[in-house]
Amino acid sequence: PSVPRHTNRLINEKSPYLLQHAHNPVDWYPWGQEAFDKAKTEGKLIFLSVGYSTCHWCHVMEEESFKSKEIGEIMNEHFVCIKVDREERPDVDKVYMTFVQATSGGGGWPMSVWLTPDLKPFAGGTYFPPEDGVHRVGFRTVLLRIAEQWRENKDALLESSQRILEALRHTSEIRVQGQESPPPAKEVMDTCFQQLSRSYDEDYGGFSKSPKFPTPVNLNFLFTYWALHRTTPEGAQALQMALHTLKMMAHGGIHDHIGQGFHRYSTDQHWHVPHFEKMLYDQGQLAAMYSRAFQISGDEFFADVVRDILLYVSRDLSDQAGGFYSAEDADSYPTTTSREKREGAFCVWAAKELRALLPDLVEGATQGTTLGDVFMYHYGVEEAGNVDPMKDPHQELKGKNVLIARCPPELTAARFGLEPGRLSALLQECQQRLSSARAQRPRPHLDTKMLAAWNGLMISGFSQAGAILAEQEYVSRAAQAAAFLRTHLFDPDSGRLLRSCYRGKHNSVEQSAVPIQGFLEDYVFVIQALFDLYEASLEQGWLEWALHLQHMQDKLFWDPKGFAYFSTEASDPSLLLRLKDDQDGAEPTPNSIAVTNLLRAACYSGHMDWVEKAGKILAAFSERLQKIPVTLPEMVRATAVFHHTLKQVVICGDPQGEDTKEMLHCVHSVFSPNKVLMVADGNSAGFLYRQLPFLASLERKDGKATAYICSNFTCSLPVTSVQELRGMLSP
Fold this sequence. Notes:
The protein is an alpha+beta fold.
């Protein structure tokens, strides 16, 4: 590589996204006091650019504008320019995204915002093309106009920014109104189900026409709705909606049929042409959803998808120290000699290429059939490419095919006169061959940043899959990642979580000079992960750490006046707003998960004030839950769990005994959204016995492993039969 002509301060950062911009001619600063002081001292506006390393349009804007010497000169002359990785600093991102959405009606990344020297926003948008077009003002023009406004109308701009901030403070506030109590579960559940049903696509699954996102929060809600209404037509419909969506996604191009795992979202209604980046948070949540689908349906198809996701994460997103990386990019070089990256280049195929790789004749099939014929028929490959030009505005996928399982295996087998079992083996052989061919292509960029929150989601995915599929290696991988968090993303002196760490030189794990403290989302996803890991591994140390983190979360983020948790701590003066997220999106909003975490924490500790706190969160969000519950499906689910009271399923027995294992297998095989599991192993000095004195009164019956179903620490009669236990676990 040639010696870079420019180097700016971002060269000293750890974030892969910031390092991508370290050689721009723009004099970038990271978010921090040095940049703020420069803006104040020189009386300059701040240009804030927020993105992430696997964001396609962030790459486009960098290529077009931030690498331009001329545009760089305009930026450096008139502005103090700050770059933020939204995954590192979701707090900064959220404050200014709230502004952009409120003032432009939309949002996204890259996010471009202009701030006064005291950090108040007054203009913003997302991607800007470099020059003026027919329908859009170019970035250069916007920069020059804003610089002129600041010169000519500084006072008006300052006044306007103050008014905007006050309005944002007012509209973004979420607090309990008067004497509000948690909303009733039945009405909120029914309304959410009706609202989801209206947007459901009966043909292809999912909840919009296009673009189409996986939205695990919707699927999780539907599973719970089914569990609580399983004898009603609505309950059956909810289950069908969730399972059909998961099946269609797994057949679609959003699922990587050669390299495993799932891409970010589909650009079309059919789950066919994806936006090709792969995010850790999707893999973690989808592993949990497909595990639940298997748990409920018993269909091995779903178990195979779980194994597929976890294979991808173990192979491609795992650090050797045990943590999980954040993402893989959508863009890559088509060949080793290409000068320009293309979206999806690593994943798509020309028909000619497939024929060359799969030329073998298939024995026993209709005469002249090759492996290529079978594979191409099954995965919808067309000679001229199978991507609709309308879904490929930049012609990056012209003549290429995105693999999509177009027909059931039985039909493909019949078409070529094959046995279904034989077809499966042939397709597997093709996949292995194509995987080897794909390994020769230049790989997409890997974001090796490791985030506490997303690692938490992935630990939950491995833990739940391990428990439900009875795969001990998945539980061990979850435990390895949790140990990684405790070593690298937890400060034992302060008892607090850290947000991020990074893969360094020679595969070391590095921390930034001033570590970023954990946000609310880091706490809730890690606490949830530790509860899931305890239930899968029965290691009480994970429980103990979870309860410690719950106390710390209460101390740092709880709003004693308006109830619920703030997303950020109170101690950062550079954050103009302390917000509470009010929408479950690609990830659940932290307060939604916090409700269930608090209820689980109360069951494991006996601290009933945590149940009260859970009710206060629901009260703070009551109005939204009653009017538009579809924006908070995970919190609606938590409302049902709150009103139904969690069942404490206590197994008295030796964790290594076969009778205990049989009972545990039974508990893990039944989907029950309102249960917590614990094993009373007779060790009265253990953590659980110290927390829950009532466990000492529970005994094994006739020397066998014995189950008790307890509610608020009052227990049912003992049960030693697995069949009886199964019946008692249903909600």
